[in-house]
Structures
1.
Amino acid sequence: MECISPQELARTMLRRGDILQAVAAEVRDKTKPGDKVLDPFCGSGVLLAVASRLKRQVRGCDIGPEMVDFASKLIARHGGQEGDIQVGDATSLSMPTSSFNFVITSIPGWNTVKYSNAREALEAKSQQDYWLQMRQAIGEMRRVLKPGGSCMFVQSQETAARMATLAREADLPTNFVMVPGAR
């Protein structure tokens, strides 16, 4: 599987103005300026740039160092303020419990795109293994979310349906923005 570049991932997301408008509306609705927003699968940083532009404190992590570097630059350039973006694993977040008002993310799809050459990249051996890792990541999102906080997933309909089940199991307050045509 060929690795997608951070630039291509960002271009793909930025072409979808309808999705970015929905993300901005949800960030405005669920948070206020100064609130802390996390993206544990930040990729190119586009979702955090939207939150940063709305004056939210943003923090993200990604398993790919090249994505972290690109996301940091994108947020600083287009978000209006610096973000705290680090190399990290969404299944084992290095953040304190109850520290974020809002979690926003677009999880990588099962076996659809490889976006990191990092040795530690999320490499599910099977679809079952992938969903076990996503269950761990959802548990971590729930752990770092403050009481009263919520989570938003930007996903394909197929992935969103499965994520909704995992979110309910973890008692994670969740909203979804569907990405038509995405896998």
2.
Amino acid sequence: MTGRREAATIGWVEAARGGCDPRALEDLWANVPEPMRLSRFAEWSVPPQFAGAFCHDGTWRAGVDLSPLPEPMRREVVWCVFRIIELGGKIPTPGLSMLVRRLGEVIADRAGRAPASLLGLPVPEWCQQIQRAVHRRSGRLPAATTMTTIRRLLTRMMRLLVTASDTGPWWQRDHWNPVEDNRIPLRDHEPMGRYSVRFDRIGTRWLRRGLQWHCKVGLDTGVLSWSTVHRRIVAVGEFDGSWPVAGSMGRGWPMTRPGCARSCWISSVICAPVRSPGAAAPASGCRRRRCSAWPAMWSSSTCS
């Protein structure tokens, strides 16, 4: 993950963190198989059907001890480990061991003032607390490579948690990941189904939200495929980037009349994914859903 992409992901996690339902952890914990509800991930404790997902080194025999963590945080870590495996990923055991050990140091260092949940602090704040705890203990800051490993794994876990715990509409998120969020409609055998899309590249707020609704309705009705959503975001991103120099694009460019630009774009692009009466319905078994009613928030957009 590049620095710019990682920073965007951390920003999205922070924005979504406030909309998470704390009660969702109970449902997430219920989905973890009983044999994986462990207080220590080790060679001798992990069930054989999950053992192959752990990438380990010489420290694996001692395992990763979760007991220093508060109970809610321990459950979150266990669920994240299980969820990564469920999605076909691998668990970097040395990195997991570093993260859990440093989190335990922060919990002990703050003496009851530390959050009981991973979502209790932003990723950058967790990293600062970890550096502070290590410095108090050893007189030195942790190595940059160590912090990179910890930050990336922590970001991955928190991204999974906010995706599973967010109570808001999925289509209003700036990051869409169909692998982690099965509410996103996909056609069967989608060739790009493991790729995510980012709407935060579009700076104009109403344009970004309009495109999100456009893509959501298109996926629901089958007018758009996931591959097309990728291309739409790229195209609209270029359109959005041209607005500051709208005067160079010729006479009559709608940027000179923002209300008209918004109305024209909504009517010509967002209204496009409306299924005609004779169109075929989505195939059974796919993740698409029927289009919901047109939202009133767009109906009042007129040229000015």
3.
Amino acid sequence: MSQIKAGLYFDYLIELMKKIKVTQLENISKAAEILATAVSEDKRIHLFGTGHSTLAAFEPFSRSGNLGNLNMMCEVPASVFSAWRSHFFEMLEGYAHEILEFHSVEAGEPIVIVSNTGRHTVPVEMAMCARERGLTVIAITSKGLSEQLEPTHPSGKKLYELADLVLDNQSERGDGSVEIPELGRKIGTHSSIASTAIMVSLLVETVDKVLEKGIKPPLYLYVDEPNFEEHNDKILKRYRKRVKSL
């Protein structure tokens, strides 16, 4: 009797989460300190990704229990929501520059760039342009996978080489989790789950560090909490002009 493949998938994810916890907590803590400082100085925290990596950037944005100063900079044409068409926009030189211009980024602000392979033109260009503007670049990527792949940006650089701090999602080549002998391959993607888990854990740690600084973090309330509308409206009014995706 064959094993239940769904169970094997959960087993894989559990082991992957353990691996990320063991190997990445130190850098997650360092990154959280950078983000907490931004909160304490009333700066924005920019989030960016392309393709399926947009999912990790979208996850905490404008969501209850998360920070109001998160500025999600993902563009629909280059996102998972454009399916295969997004591949064209991921390779479009100059796109990242225009995105940064639109969001009026400022020196000293941090940006979290999510890219599983870390090799496509736009995420790499985003890191390069962000650093030129004085932003601190935090990358969520698979360093081991990226090292195996050829870059598409003319510079020959990959995301992990340009980041001030790398959070490694430990994703494997092929993004498969469960071996299916009949197919001769693994299926069951894990990279988006890993990147999103890192993003959420990073923001949880950030909030804790903000509290350690004696500052009340600007968190959205859940819809079933008392006075949530009044509270959330105050946060929206505080950031609406600066967080352009709201």
4.
Amino acid sequence: MSLRVLNPNAEVLNKSAALHMNINAAKGLQDVLKTNLGPKGTIKMLVGGAGDLKLTKDGNTLLKEMQIQNPTAIMIARTAVAQDDTSGDGTTSTVLFIGELMKQSSGALMKVLTQDFWLMVLMLPREQLLSFSRNSRHQLLLVMSLIGIP
């Protein structure tokens, strides 16, 4: 717990709590931006520290003006802003896509993220992995493709 020595107020989470926190951060960012997508999207009012008002529906402006605290949400926002800087569009779509990926992956990750499973995937050769039962085979092929085992 060297982190506690450096900062006694630091919040320390276990792996599953940190994973849930990161997925919830992505969901929260997605929930904020999904309402301003498309022609019927809602306009957001941003109030600055000095009381100045901005009305916008632009995802890029929202992400640049928001004060995001969660590191995962910050990375998602930077990715979306980089998308907008590169192509001129797609900020909101990028956030929605990443948020949906995180939501969909949460169920799958909870099913297969055990230490023994990962040790098995990383240590056994491909032929031994494929000899598992038919139910496990689909999950194993998916995980193997995700981590780059041909």
